[in-house]
Amino acid sequence: MKDLRRVRIADLLKDSASYVGKEVDVKGWVRSRRGNKYVQFVALNDGSTINNLQIVFDLAKFSDEELKPITTGSSIHVQGLLVESQGKGQTVEVQAEKLEIYGTANPEEYPLQKKGHSLEFLREIAHLRPRTNTFGAVFRVRAALAYAIHKFFTEKGFYYFHTPLITASDCEGAGAMFQVTTLPLNELPKKEDGTIDYNEDFFGKQAALTVSGQLEGELGATSLGAIYTFGPTFRAENSNTPRHLSEFWMIEPEIAFADITENMDIAEEFIKYCINYALDNCKDDILFLQEHFDKDLVERLKFVVENDFVRLPYSEGIKILEESGKKFEFPVYWGVDLASEHERYLVEEHFKRPVILTDYPKEIKAFYMKLNDDGKTVRAMDVLFPKIGEIIGGSEREASYEKLSKRIEEQGLDGMEWYLDTRKFGTVPHSGFGLGFERLVLFVTGMQNIRDVIPFPRYPKNCEY
Ligand code: ATP
Ligand code: MN
């Protein structure tokens, strides 16, 4: 091998005119090999783009024996001249001069032989599925969206604030939390009354993985002005749906001095920014996903960024659902926690665009949401999306110490003094929301199942790798 510097296939294809006529050095995994006894064509992919680079092996230069290890999934290093391609399907190709085999992939064993494996099958080999076109595209889009999120908030003056993953505050219902303990589960230390003695546990008290960074995020917002979190959250709810994971990533901005309207404005601007970023920067991947999974993908993405979201109080949403004449699986009445079928009816059939539903009954929302003057509803705002249902849940927060402590008491929550201090000392109106990252990735990629947009999905009875 000559002393050349490797070029990423994405960079080479983006700027191919400047590489034509030059010797290039490329490395990657073989997607396929075909040809005849004079010439062999290899489709090489290095993960930097959905597009493969065609490598041409002239059998006058390379023996059958030398090329034998080049099978689907093997990894190779090639040097050669980049030329304009005569064939269809690519503009340039490499005329191989030097070949180094990094690793073989026995065709008898390598599971990704042919195209068109089902997503279910690929989920069972999630450790290899990033090597497929589909998952390469999904995970590149996912990475781009993560970057867009940091870019959006940083440019807006929000600080990235790290909230804990292990927490001792049971803010949103301890039932859905994964407990964290080092106690011996077979012989738990007991107190005199028979209950478990958590004094003996690692932290000296009961601890769990966080379901949300919001409460700690509020401490950040009421000091730094505006913050966002972006990290994993864990929910032990037994929801086997295409929209729930046991481990998912959440983005939670929290903004001091913002009311619910400003909160909605930011949520809408934010989500449109992310979608636009993906449209601008992940074109090839999105077009691939559109072609293979979702014919209306680009149209739907453009529609969302080009149109205002509907803003509608929950009570009016209920009225629309009641008057729709539609047979829902779950009944609709004022006070019900909307199911995904209700949310999707409003978005997909009634308004035909995203809807921000506000002012929900306080009984179905968290204790920290600001109570409206009617005493019955709270200043919640959920953003509902086509195909997804709820993508964002947020609210203006209760800023009054008295009202908030009353609600905490009503719900029997303990150990919230640290949280109440935000209201006790220099309280301010403030708002925030949580975006489920995988639901955004789901929407932007057009995939159907949330388990296909995170590299290693965790869900009930599944924790591989
Ligand atoms: P849902 O009603 O869909 O179960 P939620 O009301 O429990 O969601 P929130 O507590 O408001 O959700 O969380 C904020 C956001 O996090 C949601 O809008 C959604 O995008 C996302 N989310 C919630 N639960 C999950 C989950 N189990 N897996 C993936 N994303 C989730
Ligand atoms: Mn919610």
User: Quick one: CATH superfamily of the largest domain?
Assistant: Bira Bifunctional Protein, Domain 2
Largest sheet: 8 strands, mixed
Q: Roughly what is the average pLDDT, rounded to an integer? A: 95
Percentage of β-strand residues: 15-25%
CATH class of the largest domain: Alpha Beta
At CATH level 2, the architecture of the largest domain is: 2-Layer Sandwich
- Tally of discrete structural domains: 2
Percent of residues in helices comes to 25-40%
Ordered list of secondary-structure elements with their pairings:
Elements: H1 9-14, H2 16-19, E1 23-35, E2 39-45, E3 53-58, H3 64-67, E4 75-84, E5 92-103, H4 119-124, H5 133-155, E6 159-160, E7 166-167, E8 179-180, E9 207-209, H6 214-224, E10 226-234, E11 247-256, H7 260-281, H8 283-293, H9 297-306, E12 310-313, H10 314-323, H11 340-351, E13 355-361, E14 377-385, E15 389-396, H12 401-410, H13 417-424, E16 430-436, H14 437-445
Parallel strand pairs: 3-5, 6-10, 12-13
Antiparallel strand pairs: 1-2, 1-4, 2-3, 4-5, 7-9, 8-9, 10-11, 11-16, 13-14, 14-15, 15-16
